[in-house]
Batch of 3 targets.
Target 1
Amino acid sequence: MTSVTSNVAPEQVKAFQALDVDQQLALFYFIYEKMGDTVTPAAPGASKASPEIAEGLFTQVKELSFEDQLQLQRDLITGKDTVITREYAALSDTTKLLFWYLLAQGMDSNQIIPMPPDYQLSGEANQLLTQVQDLGFEKQIAFFRDIVSPMGFDATGA
Ligand code: 45D
């Protein structure tokens, strides 16, 4: 799926992508935690997501070992070519968001490798966390779409 950047928060998107892979994962999880109940899959617009497709991919990931789950999430960010990263790349942006949301929930229910309890964000990542929180809901969603859209391996070369 070709990704089109929204240009709503280009500085934040660039700053996010400049972080190392683990910091991106950690920051993404902290953002999810701070959003709390403001996001629910029943939100208006959820019709644009394909819940069965997101859940199907999530189920594949859930069945991996914790170690492989972490590797898969790193591979999504670095764009490594694997079966799952190809499947991911073929999803719509909204379905990609839903998939990440399921992963984050899976972390909370111990189906997905949890954050190490003592994990620290870098100063840069912390700053970005504050900026993203200050964006407000609509812009945050645009930011997330821009983050998750280019992840995975797009076999069409886009
Ligand atoms: O050991 O329109 C480290 C929908 C280090 C509905 C690690 C929506 C080492 C339709 C890497 C830290 C709900 C889809 C370990 C809209 C180490 C709709 C592990 C909105 C273990 C708008 C780190 C959806 C890990 C939204 C595993 C807004 C980190 C969804 C994993 C937002 C981090 C989803 C994960 C968000 C983060 C998901 C999985 C913010 C996920 C974040």
Target 2
Amino acid sequence: MQKKWWKESVVYQIYPRSFKDSSGDGIGDLQGIIAKLDYLAELGIDVVWLSPIYRSPNHDNGYDISDYYEIMSEFGTMRDWEELRDGLHKRGIRLVMDLVVNHTSDEHPWFIESRSAVNSPYRDYYIWRPGKNGREPNNWLSEFGGSAWEYDQTTDEYYLHIFSKKQPDLNWEDISLRHEIHRMMQWWLDRGVDGFRMDVINMISKVPELPDAPPTDNSRYQWGGAFFINGPRIQYFLREMHKKVLSKYDVMTVGETRGVDPEKANLYVDAGRHELDMVFQFELLELDYGPGGKWDVIPWKLTDFKQIITQWQRELQERGWNTLFLNNHDQPRAVSRFGSDTVYRTQSAKLLATLLFTLQGTPFIFQGEEIGMTNVRFPDISHYRDVETLNMYRQALNQGMQPGEILQSIYLRGRDNARTPMQWDDSPQAGFTSGIPWIDVNRNYTSINVKQAQQDPGSILNYYRNLIRLRQSHETLVYGSFRLLVPEDERVFAYLRSLEREKVLVILNFSEQEARFDLPEKLDLAAAELLISNYPVDTPGKARSVHLRPYESRVYRLKS
Ligand code: GLC
């Protein structure tokens, strides 16, 4: 296996709007991030992935870009961005930018031009079609609710928007559009960017005929996904992008790809194919989706959780490389979803972190995860900000659901769970802003915050620091192969990582109950070295089984 810096790195995702406000307008900004650079350096991360900071009307918090070459005024200026880049680089931290090129904002000059006339030179930068029998050109649904088409009076045609109607899809079949995107990527790379996280990148190629989705279309992607996820020309577009742009720089790329299994993922990340370095897969995070999709929450089983991880570990082991993440700006908080955010919050947050840093792949931390931030429960819809949540709420009301009932699923699934302000200390607004925050802080900030965590040697934050250092100093944790133990156990997740003669054993009790782990025959803990644990642990001696407390996690280096 080839060694690469990005395989050995730990990435930290910043959602700038919610990280730190320096100006008092209630919105996080670049100077706010700059003020926290030492915090990031002390945590020990290697790479920052910055969610979009480009000019945007902010309909989807920056994932609707109106100028790829400018900074959103609420966030600061290009000077601030340069200062941020330099501040990171000075501390040995690389900077990865979000690349949002499946769509732009409808306020992007290309779209304004495109919509003005059928013969506009920019018409084909987007996907326009006449209506069919006085209706939309096909039955595809938008990810954010309703039809994926919007009628435009000016030319009596519809444009495609897989996300909100303020996010028209770009037409990647158009070669001038592709040149523009390549040029823009190069422009940022020449300014010292160290890579891209590519937003919904496996949706850029649509089946050209744009056919109707059959009623049996995969229910998780009801909106016609079969015709635009992993579309017919995606591989071509990515290889072209690699050849023309990425191959000229030593950078990392990670594609956001819903609807991929390990086999499809290998088509993107197999090192011999020259497309992407890594992808974010969603099989794991869709584990608790019911037949109705995202908002239909069902209980999950540890055996399924282990099975998905094991399959990805195995199948990407030789050819590609995994990403490891349990949440991001679109997902509920990991500790609330896969751990416990009440009695065992500290233990379970540490257990999840142990998992994240001891699998093969590149770990991604989402801001606030390192202090165990939890989901939020606002009393009513007026406190929510996310376009997806608000659209869903409206639709559900129209279908006759009660507000209380809808809120229950928002508590479990809403993207605003991840977007409440970073909790820095116990002062008003959690030290995030001196003004009124754009979205309310989680009320638990008085006890869950960075300042408290820094002062407590047993905090989740300090545990993250230790894990990051541990991973950086043990090649086996990075490159070692993976072998699952006790696959049928519904409480214990245990596995071995091996590299050459070194073996590391990871034991995790994923339950609120006590559990027992029986050592496989050939393993012996008598002379093992405990690398990290989230409870005080005695030397195991000659015992053949390990008694685990609720959410206990241990990592041993075995002596061979
Ligand atoms: C991605 C982003 C999400 C955004 C969507 C549309 O899924 O992560 O935040 O809303 O793409 O750009």
Target 3
Amino acid sequence: MKRRHFLTLAAAGATGSLVSPSPWTRLNAATTMQQITAGKTRLNIAGTGQPDTDLWLYNQSCPGPMLRYRKGDMLRAEVRNNLDVATTIHWHGIRNLNEMDGVANLTQAPIEPGETFAYEFPLNDSGTYWYHAHNMGWEQVARGLYGPLIIDDDQDPDVDHDICLMVDDWRLDNDGQIDQASLGGLHDWSHGGRLGNWLTVNGKSAPEFRVKDKARIRLRLISAANARIMTFQLTNASATLIALDGAFCQPEQVTKIILAPAQRADVILDIDRGSIDIAEISTGEPYPAATLLVDPALGSSSLSKTPINTPKPAALPSLRQLRRIPIHMQGGAMGNLQKATFEGAELSLRELAQKHKKLWAFNGQIGDYSTLFAEIDQNNLVSLDVYNDTAWRHAMHLHGHHFWVMSDDPTLALPAGQRDTWLMQPQERISLVFKADNPGLWLFHCHMLEHAASGMGAVLSID
Ligand code: C2O
Ligand code: CU
């Protein structure tokens, strides 16, 4: 290698790896069948100079391929399982056909090793979504089985750059490998879930994205973390929040973005004072997440920076005739759950934990797929009245529907639009209101994936 060449490389390397604003190839072509293969791959996620990590990925990429469509398109994907274990794909946040929802052993048989399954469904909502494994998710998502799903809308605001940041919190050992010893550990399952020690954005450590000077940028943040609740802070910029969990909300100025597992947030920011650093600050120490680097070679934005207008969020219907479903959430460490029903038998928490690895309950019932938690008539307006009577935070997710968040507590900041995942604080009481207009068997569960696996979930039947 000639010395000059080396110096050029070194200069580029000094600021980390440079990534173009759209890091994935656009598969698009809504009418063609996407081929998605789940398999084992070695890939560098642990940073420069570190060994490659053994991962389970879609199409050998981390994250999996960017699936990008327009509202109204059909998504068609043939999923091949090249792993040694059964899997499925769940399309998180999509108000899907029930048989396409991808919940192994509830809405479909798991896709066995060597088998394929074809998903095909219309995309009626626009926004930022994601897809992930939904069989043993606590292990399969932790090993890398996830990817972004973006659905464009005619009413999307004009921007210079549309950048998706899919964040993950990995737990790696000293060899840069997935810390396998901690997978399935009872301590994590009874506490806040399996937290990681290595942050990636789009599978990289602190990537840089080159942007035009004076650019208007849409950032789409997606959390693929198993359990960590992250907070992102932007230096040198103020951001306008325009969507939560895919759905447009009332535009609002924000300085921080809190993302619980599975949540998404879309923000618009205008570059006016140079490059922007994005840091994750939930531990108290700012941890570099990504940089938006102004690159003069890209020129300057010619977009006029008009105030951001987004479509109005769906209005809450009249609440007369509300079917209320109380959910008393108990369990975990430092909790008050003494006994609960599991597979028809009442067991003590000690037995549940030691024999069955079950730790959490709704209304005294450990979640399992063979018990219907509630039967709901189609088109009822339903309120899940959830009381988090545990010492832990939980990211509560409803499949197949979007909900409005309501509370009697005036100190709680509630979103103006609909969501599909809501982060609950200990002792919080909240009402998640939705129109039960999508028939089928739908899960309501915690997206701290270890909590879900140890009983924090329920099946709602709508017909
Ligand atoms: Cu994102 Cu039941 O999951
Ligand atoms: Cu939880």
